[in-house]
């Protein structure tokens, strides 16, 4: 099925100037960019986006990190792009992420309270629909 997925270049990725590199990898893989917008999150958006992590020990630091600078919000499109982007992104922990992946090639552990792992990608069709609705109210 042709799917859409919400991808975020998190504040660490934008700060390090890796937005273009992430978009390049998405396009080189053959997915289409359906929407791209640089924006600063709000506590309200993050409460919705990270609802499933509320109460976890890293939740507070995660929200603080996500508010620390602009993020690049992207909607990508293509056959099985949800699984495909997660495969491009690599494992959550950038130290463990395989070389060849975004996190494996470009990320590392900075010894901070939250894993600053450069990108987010939706994990299911249900989350993708929910997250696209949160970040792009017009889509
Ligand atoms: P993501 O999977 O996009 O959404 C939840 C985020 O929380 C995750 O990326 C990491 O940035 C962060 N995270 C997840 N697990 C941990 C953890 N055990 N310790 C610190 N940060 C985490």
Automatic annotation (TrEMBL):
| SUPFAM superfamilies recorded | Nucleoside diphosphate kinase, NDK
Q: What are the names of the required cofactors?
A: Mg(2+)
Q: Which InterPro entries match?
A: NDK-like_dom (IPR034907), NDK-like_dom_sf (IPR036850), Nucleoside_diP_kinase (IPR001564), Nucleoside_diP_kinase_AS (IPR023005)
Q: Which residues form the active site?
A: 120
Outline the subunit composition.
Homotetramer.
UniProt similarity note: Belongs to the NDK family.
Identification of the protein by name: Nucleoside diphosphate kinase
| Native organism | Nocardioides cavernae
